[in-house]
Specification:
By secondary structure, this protein is α+β, with helices and mostly antiparallel strands. Helices cover 46% and strands 24% of the residues. The protein has 21 helices and 29 strands. Strands 1, 2, 3, 4, 5 and 6 form a six-stranded antiparallel β-sheet that branches. The protein has a six-stranded antiparallel β-sheet with strand order 9-8-7-12-11-10. The longest helix is centred in the middle third of the chain and has 65 residues. The protein is rod-shaped, with a radius of gyration of 83 Å. It starts with 13 loop residues before the first helix and ends with a strand. The structure holds adenosine-5'-diphosphate (ADP). Adenosine-5'-diphosphate binds next to helix 18 and helix 21.
Length: 834
């Protein structure tokens, strides 16, 4: 159970008390019900017993009476005895007879246990009495004698007490009839006196079970009284003397006489509360009442109940004690906890005082109007006020004027949320200002609203924050503006930041990159190597990872990047970020490959030059040998004219061939040394081409190849401005090549106008050029099959010269060819019509 620390008194343990009351009440109720039941059943039992005893008594008394009447009849029926008695009545003076009769009476009284025997004459006069005492006939007896004589019946009288006799008695009156004389004449009476003390009273009084108060009474009505006939248990020597009015209320004897039978609850002659059973004794005016004190009946129950009550009380006491103990325990606990709370509170108060005094923070308590109610030492020290000056001062006074307007809003926020934190500016007494962080809270003290404000001077923190911000800004700028490409990724390799240089390099903007890893734009050839190396980097096997790899830009172009990856770890050595620096080395790589190409080309040139020298020497020697050989032959005197002409032709042709070779070499030397000049003049293109065609028509005769010319401009418009010599030199070179490499078919040449250019074509149906060579044929000294070319002759310079001339004329040269089918050379020159 939690103890409410605000409670001053322990809580009343109502549940326990109610439980205790319920248990006690239930127990008492159960006890009462038990008692009532027990009492009722005991009373019922006793009533039955009393009823049975009453019946038994009545039977005994009736039996006793019958016996007495039997005695009477027996004696009255004895003729000898009766005659003797009657004789005595007649001769009462006869002494001997008196003795004889006395003797008979003696044996009768002895035999039948009668107290006294009297012989009476018809008038009731006592003739003889034995043993002689109480020989008087009482006044109650005299009136009934006449009736007895008349009825001639044996009568047992009611009990009566003679004034002269000390004791009550009954008389058995036997009419004496001498049946031999007259059956209906009663001549005398025999009265046998019975002392009830002897048999009747003990008979009445005897009780079948031991009891202190039980008694049975024999009563009869006498006028308006009840007369108690027998000796009473609780009142001695009262037989026939005790009388009670029939009207006595609740008196069992009176009730019996009033005709009540069965068992009742009443008050006996002593006024004691009794239970009684009563009945009339048949054939008599008597009533039998058997009674017992209620107290006696209930005494056993009382004992029992006393025990029950004791047990109940003990039980209630015990449970009461237990509950009491429980309640007490809880009270003790309550007070102990309260005490402990009090101690803790005291400690807390002390601690709080200590905190207030020595706290590094400024602690203020403000009332609802923001007047300072309490302040700690630190506050006084900071604001430079004395306590007297400070307490009661309004908050506005320690705020800088420009922050006063914020108070309303800040207060509203604190009120709404019960607390709030904000930053503001405070000023000291000397006017100096400092930044402060306030944590304010609404507190309720005895029903009044206060604000508790804890403030912290954050000047230093602000400065540190500014420095940090500055430094962050510096580094951000370095990162942002660095010409180097810098990227920061998380430990999952997803890009967090990428600077502008990197974005420019890769073509994506920073936002796009933030969902990428490097894998997204690394060339597939390098991904596997990256993965392995990054794992080695994380495992600290290598300090940094450096690689040169290809990246695929957003526009799908491929670039080269020199990439360096390093790890930024926290204090615990855990990976935080990856820092990636990339340098675009595409141009370097390009230069490198160009250098390689150049190198290869130089090597090729070298090789070609060797081949050229070999070739040139052959090409020069061939005509030279012809010239020298045929010049020598020309010296022969016996030469015929035709032979001479033939030799001269050969010398002439060989000289021309030699000249052509030398021209080529000179031309290329001029091209390479930059000494070739372009001379733009007017040129009649169609005419010049037709002349060229004519020259080759002449050669056509030697070949089986036909040459066709196509002009693209009408003659009148075919005058252009260009270096006509070079154009013709280029065309003739190309047509010569075609003728050289075409065994049959035809050669078409001509031009068309294309925008501001004239496009010239030389098409043949010759051997063609395979694709592996086609790129190289413009190289100097290059011949498709160096060995095989010999059969065609040439130096491998012609196309180089042509190409150089075309470029000089502002155009470009192309070749398309299919081996075995033919070749098409196309070149353009600027079209400048005149
Ligand atoms: P050359 O003096 O050897 O002819 P060129 O520079 O004129 O030198 O030609 C270079 C090479 O190009 C030739 O050796 C030849 O192999 C090839 N070539 C040039 N023109 C043709 C053509 N019309 N048909 C086939 N091959 C040709």
């Amino acid at each position: 159970m939690r103890i409410d620390s605000n409670r001053q008194v322990p809580p009343t343990q109502w549940p326990l008390i109610i439980l205790f009351i319920i248990i006690s009440f239930s127990l008492v109720l159960a006890g009462v019900i038990y008692f009532k039941n027990q009492k009722q059943s005991l009373l019922n039992e006793k009533q039955l017993e009393l009823s049975a005893i009453t019946d038994l008594k009545i039977r005994h008394i009736t039996q006793w009476r019958l016996e007495r009447l039997g005695d009477g009849k027996f004696l009255g029926g004895n003729p000898i005895l009766v005659r003797k008695f009657l004789e005595l009545i007649q001769r009462s003076d006869d002494k001997s007879l008196r003795d004889v009769v006395t003797e008979s009476l003696k044996s009768s009284t002895a035999n039948f246990d009668y107290e006294n025997a009297l012989i009476l004459d018809r008038n009731g006069k006592v003739i003889l009495s034995f043993p002689g005492k109480d020989s008087l006939i009482s006044e109650q007896l005299s009136p009934i004698l006449t009736g007895i004589i008349k009825k001639r019946e044996v009568v047992l009288t009611d009990m009566h007490r003679s004034d002269t006799m000390s004791l009550a008695y009954l008389d058995l009156i036997i009419p004496l009839i001498d049946h031999s004389v007259n059956d209906s004449l009663v001549l005398g009476l025999l009265a046998l006196r019975i002392d009830p003390q002897k048999i009747l009273y003990p008979l009445i009084q005897s009780w079948p079970t031991p009891s202190k108060s039980a008694e049975s009474l024999l009563i009869r009505k006498d006028g308006s009284d009840v007369v108690y006939l027998n000796e009473l248990r609780h009142l001695k020597n009262t037989e026939l003397l005790l009388r009670k009015p029939v009207t006595t209320p609740k008196l069992p004897a009176a009730m019996a006489i009033m005709g009540v039978t069965g068992t009742i609850d009443g008050y006996d002659y002593r006024g004691v509360h009794v239970v009684a059973a009563m009945r009339k004794i048949p054939g008599t005016p008597w009533y039998m009442v058997a009674k017992i004190d209620r107290e006696e009946i209930l005494s056993a129950l009382k004992r029992q109940m006393t025990m029950v009550v004791i047990i109940l009380i003990l039980f209630i006491l015990t449970s009461g004690l237990s509950f009491g103990f429980l309640i007490r325990n809880q009270r003790v606990r309550f007070y102990r906890e309260k005490y402990e709370n009090e101690l803790a509170h005291l400690a807390l108060v002390k601690h709080f005082d200590y905190i207030l005094k020595f706290a590094n923070d400024i602690i203020l308590l403000l009332d609802k109007d923001l007047n300072i109610v309490e302040a700690n030492d630190r506050a006084l020290e900071t604001y430079m006020y004395t306590r007297d000056e400070f307490i009661g001062m309004n908050l506005k006074k320690i705020r800088t004027p420009e922050t006063v307007w914020q108070i309303q809003e800040q207060l509203k926020n604190v009120d709404e949320n019960e607390s709030g934190t904000f930053e503001t500016l405070h000023q000291r007494k000397d006017g100096s200002v400092f930044a402060i962080e306030i944590s304010a809270r609404v507190v309720n003290i005895e029903g009044s609203k206060y604000y508790q404000s804890i403030g912290r001077d954050i000047t230093e923190r602000k400065r540190a924050e500014d420095t940090l911000k500055e430094s962050e800004e510096k580094f951000r700028k370095i990162f942002e503006l660095s010409p180097f490409c810098i990227v920061m990724t998380g430990k999952d390799f997803v890009i967090l930041r990428a600077n502008q240089s990197f974005c420019n390099m890769i073509g994506y903007d920073e936002e796009e990159l933030k969902s990428f890893t490097f894998r997204n734009f690394t060339h597939p050839d390098y991904v596997a190597n990256d993965e392995i190396s990054l794992l080695r980097l994380i495992a600290e096997e290598i300090p940094i990872y450096h690689t040169e790899k290809k990246y695929i830009r957003k526009d799908r172009s491929v670039i080269w990047g020199s990439t360096t990856v390093s790890i930024i770890r926290n204090n615990k050595g855990e990976v935080q970020f990856f820092l990636v620096m990339v340098e675009d080395i595409t141009s370097r790589k390009k230069t490198q490959s160009e250098l390689i190409v150049a190198k290869e080309r130089a090597e090729e040139g070298d090789r070609l030059k060797t081949a050229f020298l070999h070739n040139v020497s052959h090409e020069i020697r061939t005509p030279m040998n012809a010239i020298i050989g045929f010049s020598t032959l020309m010296k022969e005197e016996d030469l015929s004219e035709s032979e001479r002409t033939q030799y001269l032709d050969i010398i002439y042709q060989s000289s021309n061939q030699l000249l052509a070779i030398i021209n080529d070499i000179v031309d290329i030397a001029n091209v390479e040394s930059g000494q070739v000049r372009i001379n733009f003049r007017e040129m009649n293109l169609n005419e010049s081409l037709r002349n060229l065609n004519e020259q080759f028509k002449y050669k056509e005769r030697e070949n089986k190849v036909q040459i066709h010319l196509t002009t693209g401009l009408p003659d009148e418009k075919s005058v252009i401005r260009t270096d006509g010599t070079k154009v013709i030199q280029i065309l003739s070179n190309l047509i010569n090549n075609s003728l050289k490499f075409t065994k049959e078919g035809q050669i078409d040449f001509g031009y068309t106008v294309k925008d501001s250019f004239l496009e010239f074509t030389v098409r043949d149906t010759g051997i063609g050029i395979s694709s592996e060579h086609i790129d190289k044929i413009f190289n100097r000294f290059y011949q498709v099959d160096v060995a095989g070319s010999r059969q065609y002759g040439g130096t491998g310079l012609g196309l180089s010269i042509c190409n150089a001339y075309v470029e000089m004329l502002g155009g470009c040269m192309k070749v398309e060819s299919e081996p075995g089918k033919g070749t098409v050379f196309t070149f353009t020159i600027l079209y400048v019509p005149v």
